[in-house]
Amino acid sequence: MAIALEQEMKAKAQEARAKVIEAEAEVPKAMAEAFRSGNMGIMDFYRMKNIQSDTDMRDAIAKPQGGAKEESSK
Question: pTM above the 0.70 mark?
Answer without folding.
Answer: no
